[in-house]
Design a protein that fits this description.
It is built from 15 helices and 21 strands. It has helices spanning 50-53, 56-69, 102-109, 114-133, 160-169, 184-187, 194-210, 220-229, 239-248, 259-270, 273-281, 288-300, 328-331, 424-427, 489-496; strands at residues 14-15, 18-26, 30-36, 42-48, 80-84, 91-95, 100-101, 146-149, 152-155, 318-320, 325-327, 337-346, 356-363, 375-376, 388-390, 398-404, 414-421, 434-442, 449-455, 464-473, 476-486. Mean pLDDT is 83; it is low at 161-174, 303-315 and 348-352.
Length: 501
């Protein structure tokens, strides 16, 4: 089985800072490639067709949509991490999802059981919550815009879908969207609101449960006519799912479920919010043939997904949003030592001396470091009692800090982990030169990731970021994603925690 399509004559070998290694697909806007950042991280790079790139109006729309899409950063979205709408060619890069599309999964392996459809629906609804909170309406939610990963679905092309077809379609009076998944108000040219995405989500769930859309197939205008004037075909949708889907597919957008209402009803049908969350967080949410296909895609990139690996592995990694929390004690009760991995991918060559350093601060009850020696960084590699140790320093993109949870001093309430640019002020370097900073918590052998958080970027004045923290709740250790930037750099963070600098 071919996982990736080889590059062909005429394909670029470099787009922006990304080395192009394979083809991923093509769409109305152009071709999508698999790229690698300088640090080796896989990304999806979408390159705009030359005829669209020559359209000044398209470039302006494309730039606006990229700006909107950058505001979206959720657990079930594949965010925009870099772009050059004015480049030659114009392009954008998003987080790469090592999986297959929902459309491919259903076409190849057939409809899904109800429990799997409910878990999918919950993940997609959470994605729409984040998209809508950023004041973006997707407008083109469909099976090919849903990628399946080990730890949940990912919605792609949010906001970009408008730019994707705008130049080609709006000139002839058509609308953005895909027949069979487009809301009646989109088809008839009425105002587009978040309710449009709810209608599309209902159609996607019907497709997943039955293998066919709720308005059949055929010529686009025939499918669109049925979507506007006829009732959806829900006969093959399982009874308990049918009632929820029907409320998404109401013709009148004001009578459809809101996204929070949809989440609640999916949770009730699935056995509660906790059941939904666990099915996504712990893996096993995908039908087995689909899980195998996702595993193959991840293996081809040497990306390990704990929730899709051997059955003896613990629960899959929990992907967090800013402010999200996870209990390490619950997720990995037998672990007494963890490794915290901090990673930064450099956006542009910011000079040969561009260095990002990882640090850890052991903080007491009053929010102050318990001693200056408990500030662990490249020049103080181990805390006095040895509970926190800086394992690596000066690496191009990744640094690791080991934490022995058993020997952490009793007065420590939390351990703060941060990334800072060395000598940022003198070198005039900021986090604007970094695609994305991330923090992961893994086991000592490195074969099991417990949790992961990606910080999408910062303003051009930020030179240090607190990415996350381990903190105590009684005898329990938890991890919280923080994502707080500092314009005053490492010095500002040190002063906040009472470190003498």
């Amino acid at each position: 089985m071919t996982v990736f399509e080889a590059l062909q004559a005429g394909d670029p070998d470099q787009v922006g800072p990304y080395r192009i290694v394979a083809r991923l697909g093509a769409g109305g806007m152009g071709r999508v490639y698999l790229g690698r950042s300088r640090g080796g991280r896989p990304v999806a790079v979408k390159v705009v067709r030359p005829d669209l790139a020559d359209d000044t109006g398209f470039r302006h729309r494309f730039a606006r949509e990229i700006t909107a899409a950058r505001r979206v950063n959720g657990a079930f979205t594949a965010g925009v991490i870099d772009a050059d709408p004015h480049g030659s060619p114009a392009w954008l890069a998003t987080v790469y999802v090592p999986g297959i599309s929902l459309g491919e999964a259903v076409a190849t392996h057939g409809p899904w059981p109800q429990e799997r459809v409910l878990a999918l629906g919950a993940g997609l609804a959470e994605a729409l919550e984040v998209v809508h909170a950023a004041r973006v309406v997707h407008r083109d939610l469909k099976p090919s815009n849903v990628l399946l990963a080990a730890d949940g679905p990912r919605v792609i092309d949010f906001g970009i879908s408008v730019a994707d077809e705008a130049s080609a379609l709006t000139r002839s009076g058509m609308v953005v969207g895909s027949p069979g998944f487009m809301s009646p108000e989109q088809i008839t040219g009425n105002p587009v609101t978040p309710a449009c995405d709810v209608f599309s989500l209902g159609s996607v769930l019907v497709f997943t449960a039955t293998g066919a859309g709720p308005f059949g197939s055929g010529l686009a205008h025939a499918v669109n006519f049925r979507a506007v004037y006829e009732e959806p075909d829900l006969q093959r949708v399982p009874n308990s799912l049918r009632a929820v889907v029907a409320k998404c597919l109401t013709k009148d957008p004001s009578r459809r479920l809101s996204v929070p209402e949809l989440l609640e009803q999916l949770a009730v049908t699935h056995g509660g919010r906790q059941a939904v969350a666990m099915s996504l967080a712990e893996g096993g949410w995908l039908p087995e043939p689909v899980a195998t296909a996702v595993r193959l895609r991840a293996t081809a990139l040497n990306i390990q997904h704990p929730s899709l690996s051997a059955p003896s592995c613990q629960a899959g990694s929990t992907r967090l949003e800013k402010g999200g929390k996870v209990s390490l004690t619950t997720k990995a009760p037998d672990l007494t030592t963890v490794i915290v991995v901090l990673n930064c991918d450099v956006r542009t060559p910011a000079g040969p001396d561009f260095d990002v350093d990882a640090s850890a601060i052991l903080v007491g009850a009053k929010g102050r470091v318990i001693s200056d020696q408990h500030f662990v960084f490249f020049n103080n590699r181990t805390s006095p009692e040895g509970s926190v140790e800086h394992l690596t320093a000066g690496m191009a993109s990744e640094e690791r800090i080991k934490v022995d949870l058993v020997t952490v001093p009793a007065e420590v309430t939390k351990i703060v982990f941060l990334a800072s640019i060395y000598d940022a002020a003198n070198r005039q370097q900021t986090f604007d030169d970094i695609h994305q900073a991330s923090i992961r918590v893994i086991n000592p052998s490195g074969d099991h990731e417990i949790t992961h958080y990606s910080f999408p970027g910062a303003s051009s004045n930020v030179s240090a970021v607190i990415l996350g923290e381990l903190y105590r709740r009684g005898t329990e250790w938890r991890f919280r994603a923080v994502g707080r930037g500092y314009t005053s750099g490492l010095v500002g963070i040190a002063q906040e925690f009472g470190i003498n600098v």
